[in-house]
Amino acid sequence: MIKILHNNSCSKSRTVLEYLDENDVKFEIIDFIENPLSKMEIQTVLKKLNCNPKKIIRFHDTEFQELNLNIDALSDEQIIDLLCEHPQLLQRPILIKGKIAMVGRPIENVKYFIGK
Which Gene3D superfamilies does UniProt cross-reference here (predicted)? Predict the structure, then answer.
């Protein structure tokens, strides 16, 4: 079963859910806005994505701009703490299947991911 880190206000996230539903792919929704991820959960997702925390920050998000942060001055741990405090800054959707994960954009990548 695929787990989806989902933000309902995100059109890309909703599009992925629709695609999975239309193609009878079983999935579990994890609304990380309503239920923010713990530090350990974010670290686990990063490991499955095989990336550092900077890669999953939404730099163009209004809230990120309002925080006026120098992201290059922050450690990985500080970025993870930032994501715990401000979950809307997390890229979305993120699909998790076993030991691997991917950011669900573009939709063509999702099609490839679920086919594996």
Answer: Glutaredoxin
The residue type at 101:
A
CB 94 within 8 A of CB 45: yes
Sheet strands (E) in 14-54? 27-31
Is domain 2-115 annotated with CATH 3.60.15.10? no
Question: Which amino acid type is present at position 40?
Answer: M
Distance CA 14, CA 81 (A): 26
Q: pLDDT (tens digit, 9 = 90+) per residue, 15-63?
A: 999 999 999 999 999 999 999 999 999 999 999 999 999 999 999 989 9
What is the helix (H) or strand (E) element at residue 96, kind and residue range? strand 94-97
- Position 114 scores a pLDDT of 87
In the chain, the amino acid numbered 92 is R
- Alpha-helical runs (H) found in 1-116: 11-22, 39-49, 62-67, 76-85, 107-115
Cα–Cα nearest to 87, from 15, 37, 27: 37
Domain map (residue ranges) of the chain: 2-115
